[in-house]
Each structure stands twice: as C-alpha cells, then as structure tokens.
Write the structure tokens for this entry.
Amino acid sequence: MSQPTGIQQPEANPRRWLALLFIGLAQLMIVLDVTIVNIALPSAQKDLGISDGDRQWVITAYTLAFGSLLLLGGRIADYTGRRRTFLIGLLGFAGASALGGAASGFETLLLARALQGAFAAMLAPSALSLLAVNFTEPKERAKAFGIFGAIAAGGGAIGLVVGGALTEYLDWRWCLYVNVPIAALAVLSWWVLPADVKGEGRARFDIPGVFLAVTGLVALVYGCSEAESEGWDSSMVVGLLTAGVVLLFAFILVEKRVRNPLLPMRVLTDRTRGSAYLAVGLAVVGMFAMFLFLTYYMQVVKGYSALTTGCAFLPMTASVLVSAGGLASRLIPKVAPRVLVGPGLLIAATGVALLIPLDIDSSYAGGVLPAEILVGFGMGLVMAPAMNYATHGVNEQDAGVASATVNTAQQIGGSIGTALLNTIATSATDDYKAEHMHEITRQNMQTHMKTGLVEGFSEAFVWSSAILASAAVVVTILMNTPRPSREPGAQDAMPKAVHLG
C-alpha cells in the first residue's frame, strides 16, 4: 500500500504564520531550557552543594524524562488533540519551572527538572505536528521548517546568553523562573492554532510499550552515568546497559504485535524518516558536548563571568541562523536531504575537533571562536532538513508520534551523550590528577586542577568529533531519498516514502 506523500490539510490556516510565532516560542523555551540551566549549573552546584559526579543529573533528569515520555506525549496529542496537548504542556512546564526556581535542595531541583521534561514531552511533539499540518505547500513548508530548525539548533546558544545575564545580574534561579512569562505569552496561541481533530475511535494507550520504552531508556542513561564512579566493567554498569538493550528490543517486539502501538513500526521503517531521526540523535551529542564543556572551560578555567560566557556563544547562534534560516531553507525544496545533512555533520565534526588542542592558555579568538562557527553552521544544515523530513510521508493520525520520535532522538541522544561524555571527561581528569599527583604543590595546585579539567574536556571532544564524523558516513549512506519533485503541479515537496523490507 502506498503512503501519502505528506500530511494533508483540507484548508490552509490563514493565521499559520502567526501560529508559527507561538510554536517557535514554545520550541525555543524547550531547547534553551537545557543550556540556560547549563550556564547556571556552576552557581547552582555551589549553592546547593552538588558533587561533580552528580552535576550532570541536573541536565539528564530533564532530558531523560523528556526523551523517555515523548512517544507517549505524541500519542496523547494524536488521540486527544494537538492544540489541547500543546496548552497543557505549556502550563505544566511553567509550573515545574517555578518549582525548580524555588528549590532549596538538590532533590527538589531534580524533581522539578524531571517534571519539566515530562510536560515538555507533551509540548514538543504537539508543536512539531502543528507545524507540519499548518504548512504543506513546498516553499512555505521549507521556510517554516528552516525557521524551526534554526530555533532547534540555535536556541541553546540563546539560552546561554540569557542564562548568563540572569545568573550574573539576578540569580541562577531566574534561569528557571524565566519560563513562566514565556509560557504565559505562548498560551495566546490558543486563538490562532487550528482546531483539534481527535483520532478515530476511543484512545487506547499501549501501556506495555510505555513501560518497556521508559525503563529501557532509563537503564541505558543511568548505566552511562554510573560508569564515571563504578567503571565501565563493573557488574552494575554492565547489568544496566544490558537491561536497557534487552528492554528496548522487547519494546520493538511488542510494538509489532499490539493493535494500537505506542510507536508504529511504519514510522521507523521509512528510510528517510529513520535517517532523519538518526542524524538528529547523533548530532546533539556534539552540540551538548560543546555547550557543557565549553561552559565550564570558559567559566572555571578562563574565569569568564556567566554573562561573558553566554555572549561568547553568540557567533554560534549567528552561524546557525545563516545556515538553517538562510541556506538550508532555500535548498530543502531543491536538493536531496543527504546533500545537506551529510556535509553538515562533517562540518560540525571538524568544528568539535578544533577544540581538542585547547589548553588553559588558549585564546577565545584562536581556540573557541572558529569551532563555534563551524559547529553552528553544520548544525543548521542538519537540523532544518532533519526536522522537515521527520514527518515525511506519515498519515495525519501518526503526525504526533512521528514528531515525538525526532524529539525523542534529540533528547535521548542528548541524555546518553551528556552522561557518556561527562563520564569520559571526569575519568580523564581523574587519571591526569593521579599521574601528576607528585608534581602538585600548594603554589601550582590551581594550575594543575585547571589543566586536569581541560585534559578531560579534550578527551570528550575527541569522542564527540568521532561520533559526528561516523554519523555523517552512516546517514549519507542510509538517506537515499531523491531530491523533491520540481514539477509545477506537485502537491508536496516531500518525495514518496521509501520503506525498508
């Protein structure tokens, strides 16, 4: 049975560009929440007494809850209405942010971050599927997804600037409080978003699928994070990683057999969509590594203020805007997606590789700036077409879960990447300290501590660059979708779905 060439909308929403403003605002809130907390993390860590080994959980608690519940959030949107789910996600996210800002201890902050992730899991797939059903004309769709991709790739850098200003002039807690007025403004989207269209029949949720997906993903991320203290060969880490793989394999088997699967295999087996999900999941490993480790490099090693650190990421934001909003949006309707995604991943890999030689005396202009520009440009080329093709060829009733899948790839890639690379960096730092312990004196202790940190960051950048380069090769091979049709009568810029098997 042939798949439709795109998500069909009976009539174009006359207020679709205003709707894009609110959808983009919600997406910006989701994306910047990771990095806005990143830049506040050193201050929050000191204020709440968080250890170095536990600091990554402030990031991971959000991304893990977000990523593991996204598929359920996408199905809720498909069954109960995207606009309703979008608004519930907005209000819940704002409430969880307020709780985090008022946190008096590490445990409360983690709870708030997990709740943020849970509500974001409802908000994100609703936003992307609303975008997909609002824009079906090829040129408009490419422009809209170019803007959306720029927000997805560049919103993190904006978060660093805002987070820097809030941390320096107010308090790190305002990095969470700031979501409340943003969400209040985005609630106005109720009057411009298209009315809800519920899925046919009564909603039946795949509870076994939810359980297997959530527990499998939690086991994987927790295993990666515990490797920092326990070692990769410890029985607990090996057990967690093995359990995660087994649970996710069981999830796939269950999804093939249940009547109303959480994630229909038809969404994944489309070669174009599957490649788009893979590209996003692996791309954020490099992006998260740059944000997390460069934040600590600039603040702890170089002594930059929070605001200066945030401003130091602005060139990356500009590079993303040029790449995604300018170049990619014009090329998406004209070229095959791998022509953009493959080179984009390679450019990003090159940018991260430029960070490997960093030392405590490296300058911003010579050591950090060129890497930022390359990574930003590469990410823009990846994110715009990947977000566009993530909903390629799906039936309208699967729009929510298809949107959720690309967001799942983004958040789980970020969760596992952060946990894995933080473990690699911390282990390399500990090894350096052990090897140079006999050289450390009271006079040179600070220099050795900073050098040890940079050694860890460099090791993480090696792995991050290798992952991005490998992703470029794999995605270029798999994403064999031809360029979109240029015929005047073509109704969709997206080519027909190509299924595996």
Q: What stands out?
A: Residues 1-10, 487-501 have pLDDT under 50 and may be disordered. The first helix runs from residue 16 to 48. DSSP finds 17 helices and no strands in the chain.
